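Task: sequence design from structure.
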């Protein structure tokens, strides 16, 4: 690429590999001039309920709705079929406070 073409692109707001992203202080392009991927959100606990057991699992919060739809519960949530009980932080059924 010609130097004049590079200068024109820079003036139009394009970046260089490893260079800063215009308008985003502290963010740099990677070596292919792509924006870095946003960080993944921290995982959250879920009580994974199946036919024979309940297991505490850590999941991506973006999948929470899918887990709840098929019957999983977050710690502190009601135990299905056991009125007056909730799951504690370890996904063990305990009497509700």
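Answer:
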């Amino acid at each position: 690429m010609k130097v004049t073409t590079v200068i024109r692109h820079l003036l139009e707001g394009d970046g260089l590999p490893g260079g800063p992203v215009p308008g985003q202080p502290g963010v740099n392009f990677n070596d292919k001039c792509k924006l870095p991927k946003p960080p993944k959100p921290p995982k959250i606990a879920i009580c994974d309920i199946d036919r024979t057991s309940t297991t505490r699992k850590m999941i991506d919060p973006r999948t929470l709705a899918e887990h709840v739809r098929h019957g999983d519960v977050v710690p502190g949530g009601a135990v299905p079929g056991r009125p007056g009980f909730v799951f504690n932080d370890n996904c063990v059924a305990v009497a509700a406070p």
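The mean pLDDT is 84.
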